[in-house]
């Protein structure tokens, strides 16, 4: 074998290796960034100190990380900075101070390398209604390196659209369009999937199916970032949650960790309720009447009392002055106390002539935690 043929053979071998690593599209070699080693299991790290718009600080302190194989929930009231944060995660907006990294790449300094590992739907997926689902995915695949028909078929199966993928999108339900949008976000085989309000407009069955799908892809190792205002769904879907208020993340942790910060409440169904209320007030126990249409307790008299904070000894004194019990008859009172205190309180109530009909330990909910952390700000 001559020297020239050896050099040509080595050149062809090097070219094949290059293609295998980087891929080829339109005759041009397109680089597929290899994920850098990240600290621990973190896939995305957000550490934004400040971000301003029109001389107004929108973001003050947003710090969290999204780990591989978890569903991370992002909650906040209207105007808190959720959408702004999401736009900074995908480099649509740049922070005044701070960094966002994905798979070890700085989103703002290494834009293409970082976003090669991100799939994202901000608000509603934009689709061509006059094309089929398959044709829509082909349009998006044409913008990504190395995405073949086999990958389109695979993501269609992942989101459960394989039977309808060749139907026109205008015949799809809202839930099917949402799933097609997620399939589009999965085409590039991302390490991080960002979903902004993915359950908007879905019926209960659609929400359940989407939740199961999100849990399934997270179990396969993908990091999923979900912004949502459906607190019950977040509680069922997410492993960890961050709560943002007025541009600042006020709490981050697992759902269990955050709920453990909430005091447990004991529901006492008692008669007469005003006598039990007097005993709680004299002992300094925070309590309120359980309302059928509110997650929090309320303790109120229409004429003079409103809110759960009106539970001090003056309440009992006011009732005695008016001659009308504020909580007459059989009522359910929610009291902040440890479960271990129930036996002693049960004895004290009975000895005071209060009939105890039922005692129930009420577990804290994510809704109560959210309202406490955001001080009742409106939810998106």
Outline the secondary-structure elements.
Blueprint: H1 3-22, E1 24-25, E2 28-29, E3 42-53, E4 56-59, E5 62-67, E6 71-75, H2 82-89, E7 97-102, E8 105-106, H3 111-115, E9 118-121, H4 133-141, H5 149-158, H6 174-186, E10 192-196, H7 204-219, E11 223-227, H8 231-237, E12 240-245, E13 248-254, H9 255-260, E14 265-271, H10 273-282, E15 287-290, E16 297-298, H11 313-322, E17 331-336, H12 342-351, E18 355-362, H13 366-373
Parallel strand pairs: 6-11, 6-12, 9-10, 10-11
Antiparallel strand pairs: 1-2, 3-4, 3-5, 3-7, 7-8, 12-13, 14-17, 14-18, 15-16, 15-17
Helix pairs in contact: 4-5, 5-6
Structural summary, described in words:
This protein has 380 residues and is of the alpha+beta class. It has two domains: 42-259, Rossmann fold (3-Layer(aba) Sandwich), CATH 3.40.50; 265-363, no CATH class. Helices cover 35% and strands 24% of the residues. The chain is built from 13 helices and 18 strands. The strands form four sheets. Strands 9-10-11-6-12-13 form a six-stranded mixed β-sheet, with helices on both faces. Strands 3, 4, 5, 7 and 8 form a five-stranded antiparallel β-sheet that branches. It has a five-stranded antiparallel β-sheet with strand order 16-15-17-14-18, with helices on one face. Strand 3 (42-53) and strand 4 form a beta hairpin. Helix 4 crosses helix 5 (149-158) and helix 5 (149-158) packs across helix 6 (174-186). The longest helix is centred in the first third of the chain and has 20 residues, at 3-22.
């Amino acid at each position: 074998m001559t020297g020239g043929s050896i050099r040509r053979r080595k050149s062809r071998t090097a070219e094949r290796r290059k293609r295998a690593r980087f891929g080829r599209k339109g005759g041009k070699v397109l680089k597929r960034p290899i994920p850098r080693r990240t600290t621990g299991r973190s896939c995305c790290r957000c550490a934004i100190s400040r971000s301003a718009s029109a001389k107004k600080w929108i973001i003050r302190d947003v710090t969290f990380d999204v780990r591989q194989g978890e569903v991370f929930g992002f909650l906040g009231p209207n105007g808190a900075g959720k959408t702004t944060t999401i736009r900074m995660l995908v480099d649509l907006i740049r922070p005044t101070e701070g960094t966002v990294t994905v798979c070890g790449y700085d989103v703002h300094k290494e834009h293409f390398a970082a976003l090669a590992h991100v799939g994202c739907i901000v608000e509603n997926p934009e689709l061509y209604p006059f094309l089929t689902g398959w044709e829509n995915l082909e349009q998006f695949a044409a913008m990504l390196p190395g995405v073949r028909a086999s990958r389109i078929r695979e993501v269609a199966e992942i989101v459960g659209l394989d039977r309808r993928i060749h139907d026109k999108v205008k015949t799809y339900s809202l839930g099917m369009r949402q799933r097609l949008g997620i399939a589009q976000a999965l085409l590039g085989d991302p390490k991080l999937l960002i979903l902004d309000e993915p359950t908007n407009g879905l019926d209960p069955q659609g929400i359940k199916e989407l939740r199961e799908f999100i849990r399934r892809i997270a179990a396969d190792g993908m990091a999923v970032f979900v912004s949502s205002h459906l607190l019950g769904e977040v509680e069922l879907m997410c492993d960890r949650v961050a709560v943002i208020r007025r541009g600042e993340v006020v709490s981050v942790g697992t759902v269990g960790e955050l709920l453990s910060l909430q005091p447990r409440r004991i529901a006492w169904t008692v008669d007469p309720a005003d006598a039990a209320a007097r005993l709680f007030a004299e002992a300094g126990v925070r309590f309120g009447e359980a309302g059928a249409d509110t997650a929090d307790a309320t303790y109120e008299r229409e004429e003079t009392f409103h809110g759960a904070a009106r539970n001090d000894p003056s309440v009992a004194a006011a009732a005695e002055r008016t001659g009308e019990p504020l909580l007459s008859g059989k009522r359910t009172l929610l009291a902040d106390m440890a479960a271990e205190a129930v036996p002693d309180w049960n004895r004290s109530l009975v000895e005071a002539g209060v009939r105890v009909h039922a005692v129930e330990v009420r577990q804290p909910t994510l809704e109560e935690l959210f309202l406490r952390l955001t001080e009742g700000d409106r939810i998106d």
